[in-house]
Amino acid sequence: MSDLASSKVSRVQELIYELRVQDVMQRDVISISPQTSMREFKELLRLKRISGTPVVQDGQLVGILSLEDLIKALEQGEMSVDAGCKMTQDLQTLYADQSVIHAVNCMARFGFGRLPVTDRSGKLVGILTRGDVIRGLLRRLEMDYHEEEIQRYRARHIFEDIASDRTSLMLRYSVAARDFSCGGAASSKIKRAIERLGGNPAIARRVGVAAYEAEMNLVIHSERGGEMVVEIQPDQVRIVVTDTGPGIEDIEQAMRPGYSTAPEWIREMGFGAGMGLLNIKQCADEMTLQSKPGIGTRLETWFRIPPPPAATGEQEDLL
User: Fold this and answer.
1) Domains within the chain, CATH numbers bracketed
2) H or E element in which residue 299 lies
3) The pTM of the whole model exceeds 0.70
């Protein structure tokens, strides 16, 4: 078993893959127009106790004005100058429908503590800070706890109640190509199904991360989408992911960290970093990948479920 598979993938780590920026961002944003004077900007920072604001024209984000910009204006005696002359126009922004993991990576890469959030048309819809990420994760963890306790109680005994030589549960999910708005929905349902069956949380998290990476590969690389088939047994979870075209030219090269055939516009959306297959392999106990250029790809992964501890007088979970 790989190091990642043998370690615990925390629920927080999993949530930053699942949650979108719009789920945790601040929607009530203090902003100014390009015609706002630096003197007015100084007073706004004092009253609101903030260190900068987005600059918005007709609803569109056009720049950022910071405390550093104000200090320079003070030093140069330019307090009557409009914000539009002092703002930063080379912006690093987030899209509301991007994943929180992308936002966290951007903050770490550029050293920013906050980033403006826009929709795909460039309209300012929010702002995200590191504190927002933490608070959003805590809220989701609390919601998950109450919901999962109810659902686990309802479904955990399904394998006990059905008598057969080999009992398994089959789940099928269709994934559409380029449908980024629904990307991650199937993997979230797969993980939740395992949890509701009384699954071990550590195994459910590993399955969830691997399934997410496989699902996003279908969204990004497949021509007509694909299918994810999950077989849940008392002793293992098996996931088969298939698509038709374009296939993988060199599987060994595709497994190298950072290698990706995703076009630039996909990368600009925060996807296609070239770590998906490697992450899947690290999460799974076993993985096979078959692909023929122009025909399609078949990815199969197994996650073994260890037997329960010796009987202690109480019924253990099957998963």
Assistant:
1) 18-133 (3.10.580.10), 164-304 (3.30.565.10)
2) strand 296-304
3) no
